[in-house]
Amino acid sequence: RCDQLAESEQYADSAVAEHFNPDAILPASFFRKASDGAGSARRYARIPVHAWRMWLALRRALRGETDCGIIFVPTVMLPHLLAWRWLVRSRSLPPRARVLLFFPTLPLRVDPAGKVTIDGSPTSRLMQRWFLALAPKIESGRVVLGVETTAMLHAATRIFGVPFTYLPHPVQRLDEQPKP
Questions:
Q1: 114 burial via Cβ count (<10 Å: 0-12, 13-18, 19+)
Q2: 170 or 160: whose pLDDT is higher?
Q3: What is the DSSP track for 62-116?
């Protein structure tokens, strides 16, 4: 069942694996190769390759599912965004499923005057293009983009031109933390 589907790569954190008992269906993270000395062209070439592998794995996992509410995707990075863009546009998702893509970080920066701007990297330009390509699905509610601060919400919505949703991390207040 879709509401019980938890997926990870084979190297998932032991705490995650113990709590959720995920099926290791996702390809190994391309970040495992981040410090292998490859040039920027090779590193960027890994993005569509990893996205394609994710798309294939997720399409297989979701095949035949008909009853999904929200598919929550935590910690979305560039290749994940591309894979989910392909999934949503290829009609590989269950008919009524909504996809919540959560971005704890985005390629934004604060300039000396305090204004938040896009950082101008190739990553930021690709994200901007892919967010705009998803705009009809975002506007229809099929895709929801989440961020964890209100400052990020306002900046991302303004900069990327699509609506984001505020999804704060649930954390214990500092004054409620147990004493060591």
A1: exposed
A2: 160
A3: HTT----SEEEE-S--HHHHHHHHHHHHTT-S-TT-EEEEEES--SEEE-TTS-E
82-99 pLDDT tens trace: 999 999 988 788 888 899
Q: What are phi and psi of 105, to 5 degrees?
A: -140, 155
Neighbours of 180 (CB within 10 A): 3
Q: Which two tokens stand for residue 67?
A: 């009853």
Q: Cα torsion at 33, 34, 39, 42 (round to 10°)?
A: 60
DSSP 27: P
* Structure tokens belonging to residue 42: 């090779």
SS3 content of the chain, % helix, strand, coil (to 5): 45, 15, 40
Query: Tokens 């209100």, residue?
Result: 150
Q: Read off the tokens for 78.
A: 């560039």
Please give the DSSP secondary-structure letter assigned to residue 175.
Answer: G
Retrieve residue 43's tokens: 């590193």
What is the distance between the alpha carbons of residues 100 and 138, in angstroms, rounded to a whole number?
Answer: 10
Q: What angle do CA 136, 141, 145 make, to 5 degrees?
A: 85
Per-residue pLDDT of 31-58, as tens digits, reads 555 566 677 787 778 888 888 988 888 8
- Claim: this prediction has a pTM higher than 0.85: no
In contact, 153 and 107? CB cutoff 8 Å: no
Place of tokens 């991390």: 169
